Amino acid sequence: MATKNTSTADQALIPLDYKPSKMRIERITEETSDTKTFRLNFCDADEAQRFEFRAGQFGLYSVFGAGEATFCIASSPTRKEYIECSVKRMGKVTAELHQCNEGDIIGFRGPYGNSFPMEQMEGKNLLFIGGGIGLAPLRSLIWNCLDLREQFAEMTILYGARTEADLVYKEELKTWQQMQDVRTAYTVDPGGETPEWKGEVGFVPQILEKMKPSPKNTIVITCGPPIMIKFVLVSLTGLDFSLESAYTTLENRMKCGVGKCGRCNVGNQYVCKDGPVFRCSDLQNLPQEF
Amino acid sequence: MSEEKQNQSEKSQWQPRIVAFLCNWCSYAGADLAGMSRRGYPAAIKVIRVPCSGKVDPMFVLKSFERGADMVLVSGCHPGDCHYTSGNYHARRKLLAFRELLDFFGIDQRRFKISWVSAAEGAKWSSLVKEITAEAQALGPFKTFATMLQGEPS
Amino acid sequence: MTEETIKLTIDNQEVEAEAGQTILDAAKTLGIEIPTLCYHPAVPSAGACRICVVEITAGARGALVPACAYPVQEGLGIQSNSERVRQSRKMTLQLLLARSPGAKIIREMAKEYGCEELRLERKDDDCIMCGLCVRVCQQIIGTAAVCFAGRGPDREVSTPYKLLSDVCIGCGACAFVCPTEAIDPAEFCSNPLEKIANEFNCGLDNRTPVHIPFPQAVPNKPVIDRENCIRFQTGGCGACQSVCPAEAIDYDMEDKTVQEDVGAIIVATGYKLFDTEVFEEYGYGRYPDVVTSLEFERMVSASGPTDGQLYRPSDGKEPKTIVFLQCIGSRREKGGVPYCSKICCMYTAKHTILYKHKVHDGQAFVFYMDVRSGGKNYEQFVRRVLTEKMATYLRGRVSKVFPRNGQLVVRGADTLSGGQVEITADMVVLAPAIQPSPGVQDLAQKLRIGYDQHGFLLEAHPKLRPVETNTAGVFLAGACHSPQDIPDCVAQASAAASKALGLVSHKQLTREPTIGVVNELSCNGCFECENVCAYGAIEHKELRDREGDLTATLAHINEGLCQGCGACAVTCRSKSIEVQGYRDDQMFAAINAISR
Amino acid sequence: MSANGTITQTLREAAAQVLSEEKVGVVIGYGRDDGQEFSTPVFLRKAEEVKRLVFDDLCFGNLAVYLPRPEIRKMGKTGIVVKGCDLRAVNVLLRENVIKREDVLLIGVRCGGVGQPQLPKCSVCELHDPGGCDVVVGEAIEQQEVKAEQRYTEAGKIEAKPAEHRWEFWQKQLSKCIRCYACRQVCPLCYCKRCIIEKSTPQWVQTSPHLRGNLAWNVTRALHLTGRCVGCGECERVCPMDIPLGAINQKMAKVVDERFGFRSGFSAQEEAPFTTFSTEDSEEGIL
Amino acid sequence: MGEQKLYQASANWLKSAVDALCAAGIEVLAPTQSESGKVDLARVTSSEQVIQSYPNTAFPLKRLFLPMSEVLLEYEKGEEGDVELGPKSAPAKELVILGCRPCDAAALEMLDKVFQWDYSDVPYQEKRDRTTVVSLACSEPSPECFCTSVGGSPQGSEQSDVLVFGGANSAALMQINTAKGEKFIERLADTVTPAPEGTKLPEPTELEQKFDPQKVKGWLDENFESNFWVENSLGCLGCGTCSYLCPTCHCFDIVDEASWNRGQRRRNWDCCSFALFTLHASGHNPRPDQAARYRQRLMHKFKVFPERFGRVACVGCGRCLKNCAVGQNLLADLADIESR
Ligand SMILES: Cc1cc2nc3c(=O)[nH]c(=O)nc-3n(C[C@H](O)[C@H](O)[C@H](O)COP(=O)(O)OP(=O)(O)OC[C@H]3O[C@@H](n4cnc5c(N)ncnc54)[C@H](O)[C@@H]3O)c2cc1C
Ligand SMILES: Cc1cc2nc3c(=O)[nH]c(=O)nc-3n(C[C@H](O)[C@H](O)[C@H](O)COP(=O)(O)OP(=O)(O)OC[C@H]3O[C@@H](n4cnc5c(N)ncnc54)[C@H](O)[C@@H]3O)c2cc1C
Ligand code: SF4
Ligand code: SF4
Ligand code: SF4
Ligand code: SF4
Ligand code: SF4
Ligand code: SF4
């Protein structure tokens, strides 16, 4: 893996004073019992104008009084009117965020981190494999790709959650299912289904093996709980995929988002700067610190 | 107006903030009774209901001071009368020891009161609140916590 | 045991009897009455008085035999009232009448058998020498305090050497069985039993150790008062057992602590009366004719000690003047209670009416502070007393009651006329304040319910939850809550009962959601929480890994037991316990809000 | 040093024996390289390693802090070198179910005191001879009688100041705290999996090292150790900012001693003062 | 700067510098001694508070640029839900640090690298910009010192605007390295004079090299998984002492502290030895035990930093070994690694 030896001299530095931009919550969608999607608008029109990001990037969202937390930007960069993030209630900030109402003002810093390799993906078959809330970063990319549909070959979405109730973006899952040029497979863990469930039942790697996607000319992007990723990679290898063309994201704890607070590194890789998107083959060479 | 006089008039306009943690069964009911029997007591007191005086963590008291309380009161059932049999006995131990610790640090003990008020003692509640409000008024704003951030490290 | 049945005929009726039974027993089953004197079912028969003789007419040698002692035999034919029998009884009675003309039962029997006065030398002794007392004392009580002494005409029942007996335990069994009421152990017992005051009648009369507590008792069955029962005190007596036909008495029964799991508790421990003796000026306890309203209530009760006759205690004369004093202790900040006892006005008015019923020419006076007659028709009731001149009502306090010439002088103020009044009365009735039953505080602490400074139990809310307490499942009814009369008690009791039923009629109990929850990720398993939990709600939960090996033992809160007091939450240093509804973040937010 | 020399020798023998007999998986003791200012913990797994073991008057540390550690427990039954004062901490750990008696092998040393000059705690030590250990090394030491007033001299000095001076004093001391939590980490009784400081919902104790946060932190820790602190003095020793933490703990020890007649760590069975109560406790100061 | 300029100063230079700067209304930090005997840099208002003889200060410089706790943001919520953000940053006042040691100055190099990595950390940089660092070359290193092993030197001039040779209480030679240094010299006016042409710097102080960072890195590259980490961290308490006293450690936490409607966002020191440093909200912890955390500390300093920034993140000040409560000895550990 090529390690960038970042030099400070020859690059224009971006001043960072940790002051977030103010954003207004425009809409809150309840995805599951513990996950909500927030649609946000910059309060300042200039900031809105200037703001740009790429799929896969993340930001630091803050509830004033509770603190900052990291979430990926779950909306597509092609839809510039707003940004969205989907948040699972886990701790202090996320709980406070869940308490917020539409119209409330929160803070946002970003975008930070690298992004999915859009350039490499052009003309390729795309296989998205998501688990649980891990669909959030994929969603940004999926819409991004759907908005530029002609640039890519086949698109396949495999998504699973523990139970039916844990599936996020239920409306969009339907939309994708109905699209002619997208292949979808949704699954829940055994026991997580209701009698009405029409999708698959089984763990994501099992369904993947059942689907037998062709590794040819395919790029895989997978996001989800670490344990799922681990077995997805095993299955992919079994299906003759090269991990060189598989990407995932990491979610190590971070405070600054810009490589200074010193906690997100995996070996010499800083998840906030070198990630959060990593090539799976690279990850296998990193120390298991994630 | 002389400075002293001005101070005095400021003091008299100033209203202390007293945070009271009242157990649900005795003191809260006692305060309720005071209200129901139309016994007035000063509004300086901000009541937070807890199941039992034994549920009052010293953290609550400390945090109240941090948040600007000029006085904190914890009130529960009389010994032997605890709705939960022994909560107030535990509270008595812990809170009195805590008060000694505050004192050891030089933090004015008079700012932290403990009382027993039963559900039938509406009158006691009302006179107690009058008394401690007057005391808080006389003591003036509690500066210890208010000024604490000024000595921030650099 | 194979029971041998024996067939015989009595007065031409066939009867089946068991071996070992007597003719008397067999006759009883047929409803044939054979007179007896020296017989008592609990005492071995002696056939001594021969009043129970019957004639054998078949199956054996024809003879007159004592029915109480003669065993049944197969094929026996008996005549219980033949001429021969009647003659024999007449003879016997005549002798007895001569010996004990004063004995009621003998006189009655003699009359029945048509005996005349005898020429025999009259002896004036009620004792008929049947020996039943001797037998009961020897064979039942096992004491042998009395025996026959002397011979011939000097024969009598007595203690050995006619001395005071210190063997006699004073049980009174002899007196109990004596057909002629001729014996009284008090005459020879060196340590006679004390009389037992009848509590129900306020000690106005006495009762036996085995007694039915009061006429309406439920269940209406006797109880043995062990403190006073000889059987329990000395191991003797046992009379009640031997006489109880239902064989219901078992001295070996132990008091049992009965443990019941219940879903609801209704506290209805009622009241006691204020101790009137503390007010010396009224003379209660010193002058027998000063009584409490409750004592008066018993005196005029038809089921009371005097069968409803009103006598004054000192000399049994009918009281012609009576004074009722209200508010004894009530509404009295000093020495009494500050509250109004609520029921006294009404029952005093009732008492004046009752008094007038008993003593038509009597005069009643009532000293009162106010007449409080709130309640349906209550005011009309009081009006009736006043308009029908049942009593003279004097508004004011009495300062002193003192004796003068065998009567009581009541000195008080009449605030309406503004003068001092003195009434000379035969009896004074005090209406003491109502107080909660003794020991109610202990009970309240056990039940974890509140009480006020007077000891009256506290409702959860005076308006919205008047029969509930702060402890779920515990309800209040009656005077334990506040002074109240029967209609109020009944209303409250009905309400409490329906609340309790409402609670237990569900399959599942809804409980307060405020209970503790342990965070297993941070619990250290130190179990300091366990030590402070008053309900034993903290359990040890064992965590095991996949191999089943114990990895940790952590605290777990039993949600059924937890009451949500939060003692554990404060004790837990790592803040691993949260009480739902009073979670730390909620408390934190509440505290935060003061800096608003 | 001669007396200590013999202790070291017998200690090594004792450790070698329990290790070679496989009675324990590890022995925690003290070791010291030349020039080191104090003896540091060593963890011995094999009998051959016992030459690293020493006992001398630079053995300040309270090794009981390692007993709850998962890494240590994984090694099997733990042999541990304890001075009398350290044993008190072990007793508290036993009482609080942190360790089980059968999982530790206590190698007690009869310690006459550590420090050059001797630490104040040692001059009022009441446990020169640690009772109830599995192995005891060292010569018997005569136990001096310690009077109640000798126990709390450090706290007493501060108590003697007027309230305003006390506050000035502590303000100065507590402002120094850098929130390194060394005091907590070294304390054998601060074994919480998640310290209150690490609970963020809500954050009772502010983590910022400003006076307010520092006061809350030190007050909280003092309360959490009330009736538990065994006065080993480790927290004060390791505080890089030289904050007199011992005095705070001593004050609370005094409070529980005087109020509830309780002194911590003398037995593994006792109830801690805050987990029990007496109906006779003082009501003084309650309205 | 092209060629180094040298100035001479009298033995009393430190005290007169303090007085001159204070008189000019400039904030001065100089070595002082606390009641408990600790020597540390502190704000002084007169030369009397200053002491002149000490091996090194108790604290490194980092807290002057990355304070233990600093307010990043203030906010106040209005009634209508709007939020007011502050504070408006005040213009930074000039500050001069007098008398730190070269190793501590050199550590600023590492901090600069981190805080100027793509993003320029404004709160840090403001403080950095306003500060002039005048360090004092070491003539008698302490036994714990090992700067020479990590690329430094007792006379290293890295990040010192001025480096002073000759001690605090003897005649001194001042080496001016930056424009800030020039300005400093100007302020001292006549107490210093340019050194005569050809003045030589004193002979460098000898300090043996105690290990070879290259070799250490070689071993670290191969041994992420090793029993070494477990064995050598058994005694470590996981306190923050070593990091907090380390001139190059710079990890921080960001927390909000709020009352009802207003509050602050603060940046506080944090430390990789703490158990919760990397704990995910899900409860998963990538560095679950002390061994992993101890490994991070060493790896970060001796492998990650060289790979990312071209230099080990240790200046050999020896504070961590001196202050560790359980005698955990970085030097010994590194020597151990080197010998493997
Ligand atoms: C690049 C990136 C992208 C992400 N994207 C998303 C996203 O799109 N959606 C999303 O929902 N999340 C996302 N996350 C995860 C998200 O950042 C965290 O869930 C969030 O920061 C939690 O913040 P919090 O303040 O609510 O939790 P905190 O209050 O900070 O709680 C976490 C802290 O509490 C303590 N804690 C938490 N759990 C436990 C426990 N089980 N035991 C003991 N202590 C505990 C620990 O100190 C922990 O650090 C992302 C993370 C990263 C790094
Ligand atoms: C002189 C007099 C006259 C009255 N006349 C009238 C009248 O005419 N009309 C009228 O409406 N009212 C009258 N009252 C009032 C009436 O007596 C009360 O209203 C009524 O008895 C109250 O009923 P209670 O069931 O609440 O209590 P009580 O009748 O006092 O019954 C309480 C019961 O609880 C038992 N108890 C106490 N403690 C315990 C315990 N710890 N455990 C178990 N059991 C316990 C007691 O032994 C008692 O049996 C009169 C009262 C007095 C004094
Ligand atoms: S007190 Fe706290 S840490 Fe200890 S067992 Fe109870 S819940 Fe667990
Ligand atoms: S050891 Fe000292 S500086 Fe560190 S947190 Fe504890 S009291 Fe504060
Ligand atoms: S300070 Fe309290 S919560 Fe923290 S480790 Fe110590 S005892 Fe546990
Ligand atoms: S608080 Fe300090 S003295 Fe007390 S046990 Fe812990 S480390 Fe030892
Ligand atoms: S090495 Fe020492 S100073 Fe550093 S964390 Fe471990 S015990 Fe603390
Ligand atoms: S690691 Fe230790 S020696 Fe190196 S700079 Fe930090 S404190 Fe100094």
Outline the fold blueprint.
The complex is a heteropentamer of chains A (290), B (154), C (596), D (287) and E (340).
Chain A lengths: L13 E3 L4 E12 L2 E8 L2 H6 L7 E6 L3 E6 L10 E6 L3 H8 L5 E8 L5 H4 L3 E7 L3 H13 L7 E7 L8 H9 L3 E7 L11 E2 L2 H8 L6 E6 L2 H13 L7 E4 L15 E2 L2 E2 L6 E3 H6 L5
Chain C lengths: L4 E6 L2 E6 L4 H8 L22 E6 L5 E3 L9 E4 L3 H17 L4 H9 L19 H10 L5 E3 L6 E3 L14 H5 L18 E2 L8 E2 L2 E2 L11 E2 L5 H5 L4 H5 L21 E3 L3 E3 L16 E3 H7 L21 E8 L15 H15 L4 E6 L9 H10 L4 E4 L2 E7 L2 E8 L4 E7 L1 E6 L1 E3 L3 H8 L26 E3 L9 H19 L11 E3 L9 H5 L5 E7 L5 E8 L9 H5 L5 E3 L4 H9 L4
Chain E lengths: L4 E5 L3 H11 L3 E7 L5 E5 L18 H4 L3 E9 L5 E4 L8 E6 L1 H14 L3 E3 H9 E6 L25 E4 L6 E5 L2 H10 L3 E3 L18 H10 L4 H7 L7 H5 L6 E7 L3 E8 L20 H20 L9 H5 L6 H9 L2
Parallel strand pairs in E: 2-6, 6-8, 8-9
Antiparallel strand pairs in E: 1-10, 1-11, 2-3, 4-5, 4-13, 9-10, 12-13
The complex binds flavin-adenine dinucleotide (2 copies) and iron/sulfur cluster (6 copies).
One iron/sulfur cluster binds next to α10 of chain E.
What does this 3D model show about the protein?
The complex is a heteropentamer of chains A (about 290), B (about 150), C (about 600), D (about 290) and E (about 350). Chain B is α/β, with parallel strands linked by helices and about 150 residues long. Chain B is about 45% helix and about 15% strand. Chain B is built from six helices and four strands; from the N terminus they run αβαβαβαβαα. In chain B, strand 1, helix 2 and strand 2 (about 45-50) form a beta-alpha-beta unit. The mean pLDDT of chain B is about 85. By secondary structure, chain D is α/β, with parallel strands linked by helices. Chain D has two domains: about 5-135, Rossmann fold (3-Layer(aba) Sandwich); about 150-260, Orthogonal Bundle (Fumarate Reductase Iron-sulfur Protein, Chain B, domain 2), CATH 1.10.1060. Chain D is about 35% helix and about 10% strand. In chain D, strands 2-1-3-4-5 form a five-stranded mixed β-sheet. Chain D is globular, with a radius of gyration of 20 Å. With about 350 residues, chain E is α+β, with helices and mostly antiparallel strands. Chain E has two domains: about 5-195, no CATH class; about 215-340, no CATH class. Chain E has an eight-stranded mixed β-sheet with strand order 3-2-6-8-9-10-1-11. Chain E has a four-stranded antiparallel β-sheet with strand order 5-4-13-12, with no helix packed on it. The longest helix of chain E is centred in the last third of the chain and has 20 residues, at about 290-310. Chain E is globular. Classes of the chains: A alpha/beta (about 290), B alpha/beta (about 150), C alpha/beta (about 600), D alpha/beta (about 290), E alpha+beta (about 350). One flavin-adenine dinucleotide binds next to helix 8, helix 9 and helix 12 of chain C.
